[in-house]
User: Fold this.
Amino acid sequence: MSAVKPSDPAMAGLAVIPPVSTADFADPAWIGPLAREAERLGFESLVLPEHVVLAVDYTSRYPYSKSGRVPLPSDCVIPDPIDTLAYVAGVTTTLGLATGLLVLPWHHPLTLAK
Assistant:
């Protein structure tokens, strides 16, 4: 299979979002090969989430699942995306890096400015 060229104007940029439920994306032995393969295949970017807290009891309906519940356990460990994206930046050359969500008040502004 040949890689899609990200510079091809006919192709929309596609991003990879790794599964969150196992917290594997913070493991360099897992995320490094995934990121390099995504880059090789021509994906535009890697997007990582951040959630500081997952609610245990709530009455509102979560709109993105048929059950109306968030499909993650409330004790799911979601690693810091900035740390992980910094690592990915060191093992890739063209892959864009982004957060799908970043809780700004939980980060020092000087740390994010780096």
Q: What stands out?
A: The mean pLDDT is 84. Residues 28-40 form the longest helix (13 residues).
